[in-house]
Design brief:
484 residues; 2-methylcitrate dehydratase PrpD; 60s Ribosomal Protein L30, Chain: A; 2 domains; four-stranded mixed β-sheet; 8 strands
Length: 484
């Protein structure tokens, strides 16, 4: 059995009863988190542009745009919800099984799979159990494919959420459509030829477009395969196939025989983001917040802040002096400065106005990111960070964190995930809808239909009756008042 067939066979043959209970529990948390960040991300300017784009296209009212009463064709719902899911860079991150891979290639596994499976699940009228199964299988395939690829793929400039995300999304949708093994093989090959996304676009609206297109590509590939569209049958392992063309090779031992053994969600795991920024900043973000609070530090006390990490961090956090919030999400100086000045690093901090404030700019000039030889020698499986704060008094304060809150070693509880969901959902939904969504997701596998969840996530029946749209995206009522 070739690798492509092995992946398709796993998806085709795995049933809900085959999934361990601890994987089901973990999946509920990732779904809650993924839906929350998509609701918040709808308020971003890039999401608004994509939403206006898809609204201009005619088609069936099949699937819900989260946070609104709007229904559009399923592939386009996958696109806009996927863009929103990554717009704030607040979605979860895959870990790695080896020290050579760059933190699991920084793949954001939930967004492409979740936002392909949910609109198709709505269209196909599946149950909560069927939805969870499709989501879990899609994430497993995505993570294993990413874990096995030569790390050169990410280091040379490909964005793995865009490339591998579409393959996971395709398998999730294929499962919802009940495709047979042969059709799933074709689905993988179609999705593989649609895979793209370049890291030079980090810090721009195009980065979340990668995730949205991956979700849309997954839907499109599965629907084409269902209709009889032909493709190669060995797309993953072929000499001119996905792995060799995109990375120059792969480690077969990291995927063959590993699907669901164990589930990637459990080992090595997936990290949930505590902050709406690039995940490589998070251990340092955690550490600076703790140091500031512990020592009651203020900007006027600080002469300099040195942040040490390994060489892959500057390769991703590429903005020493950001000008926009999107750039600030990939800037160690901004993450350090805002933590000192506001002692917070939430949605309200990662906005354009904060990045441009004079006091923020002045403090950013005192922050240096450097490669720490000791941390470099430890490998790239974790985002180890060291901070040294030199005070004007001559005193030095320092510390080191290897992981951030939300990592499997420092997991977030259901209560903490629910709080994050509320914080995100409050931007676009009434609080009663957010509470209803939390309760429904907590027993997702018991739902006979996804309708109650989608009703809660769309703001309820009143959405359809509101006819005006505020000119300023980001207000609490913005998405609830979208004109149909």
């Amino acid at each position: 059995m070739g690798l492509t067939q092995e992946v398709a066979h796993y998806v085709a043959k795995t049933s809900y009863r085959d999934i361990p209970s601890e994987v089901i529990r973990a999946a509920r948390g990732f779904v809650l988190d993924g839906l929350g960040v998509a609701l918040a991300g709808l308020t971003e300017e890039g999401s608004r542009i994509v939403l206006n784009h898809v609204r201009q296209m005619s088609g069936k009212e099949e699937s819900t745009v989260l946070g609104t009463g709007l229904k559009i064709p399923a592939p386009k719902a996958a696109l806009i919800n996927g863009v929103s899911g990554h717009a704030m860079d607040y979605d979860d991150t895959q870990l790695s099984t080896s020290k050579e891979a760059v933190y699991g290639l920084l793949t954001h596994p939930t967004t492409p799979v979740l936002h392909a499976a949910l609109p198709m699940g709505e269209k196909e009228k599946i149950s909560g159990e069927e939805f969870l199964l499709a989501y879990i299988l899609g994430v497993e395939v995505e993570c294993r494919i990413a874990d096995a690829i030569n790390p050169h793929h990410y280091q040379s400039g490909f964005h793995s959420t865009a490339t591998m995300g579409g393959l996971g999304a395709a398998m999730a949708v294929g499962k919802i459509l009940r495709l047979k093994e042969e059709a799933l093989i074709r689905t993988l090959a179609i999705a593989a030829s649609m895979a793209s996304g370049l890291r030079e676009n980090f810090g721009t609206m195009t980065k979340p477009l990668h995730a949205g297109r991956a979700a849309e590509n997954g839907v499109t590939a599965a629907l084409l395969a269902q209709a009889g569209f032909t493709s190669a049958t060995n797309i993953l392992e072929a000499r001119r196939g996905f792995y060799h063309a995109m990375a120059g090779g792969y480690d077969e031992s990291k995927i063959s025989g590993k699907l669901g053994r164990p589930y990637f969600m459990l080992d090595p795991g997936i990290s949930i983001k505590p902050y709406p920024s690039g995940s490589l900043s998070h251990p340092a973000q955690d550490l600076i917040l703790d140091l500031v609070r512990e020592h009651d530090l203020h900007a006027d006390d600080i002469e300099s802040i040195d942040v040490g990490t390994n060489s892959n961090v500057p390769n991703a956090l590429i903005y020493p002096m950001p000008k926009t919030a999107l750039e600030g999400k990939f800037s160690i100086p901004f993450c350090m400065a805002i933590a000192v000045l506001e002692r917070k690093a939430g949605i309200a901090q990662f906005v354009d106005r904060k990045v441009r404030e004079r006091k923020v700019v002045e403090l950013m000039k005192r922050v240096t990111l450097y490669v720490d030889d000791e941390l470099e020698a430890l490998g790239y499986d974790q985002v180890r960070s060291r901070i040294r704060i030199k005070l004007k008094s001559g005193k030095t304060i320092e510390g080191r964190y290897d992981v951030a809150r939300g990592h499997p070693q420092k997991p977030m509880s259901w209560a903490e995930l629910s709080d994050k969901f509320r914080d995100c959902a409050d931007l676009v939904l009434p609080r009663k809808n957010a509470e209803s969504a939390i309760q429904l997701i907590s027993r997702l596998e018991e739902l006979r239909s996804l309708k109650p969840l989608l009703r809660a996530l769309s703001g309820g029946k009143d959405n359809d009756d509101r006819k005006t749209r505020p000119t300023k995206p980001g207000s609490k009522k913005w998405s609830r008042t979208l004109k149909r």
